[in-house]
Amino acid sequence: MKAFILAAGVSRRLYPHTYNTPKCLLDVGGRPIIHYQLEALESIDITNVTMIVGYHREILMEHVTSNFPNLKFNFLVNHHYFETNTAFSVYLGRDILRSDDHVLMNADVVYPKALLAQTVNSPYETALAVDAKVCGREEVKVIDGGENKIVAIGKDLIESQCLGEFIGVAKLSKVFTGLFSDSLEHLINAGGVNDYFEAGIQPLLDKTDVHFEDVSEYPCLEIDFLEDLESARKLF
Fold it and tell me: What is the CATH number of the domain that holds 46?
């Protein structure tokens, strides 16, 4: 199994903190956000890491290669990081993604190692880490169809019908990554460069099983806004 990390974004909503620093290098709990993902990967012996980079990429690439010498990094550059979103970033690496089982992660989430271990060790071939909770409009939400199966995913779902938030950590089987890559090609070719990658998962939910792992017992937080950064620094 390999890792695929999305770390290209500008993070305007965190200005001025991200004027000169990529978001995933901001400090939370005494270490950069990206360390939570990379240390978790090392703890379960996943050493092959594809990282989609863009904004301040030289700083990020130098940092991770010098701080994690035991990991084998493959960097792909999203040169359109200002005007695209995560769907386009995954699309750029689709040929790598479809080649093997992968852990797909956003680089802006803080969580303990045990959360990733539970997701990777899930009995389901494809499993998304979900924080079961009451959600607001901004979170990427999922609807539980029973038997841990996801039947809808996205930001625009009715909050009261949702199980919780997909936190941006997923184990994807090789079969699923092939379907997912094809779905992203259709999405991008239709003009969806500003979509989140979950828009490429939604059309697949009636074609193949996508399950979830309830990780609500663990502290975890996706950092999008200044208040998220402050909350993460308190939580961790």
Answer: 3.90.550.10
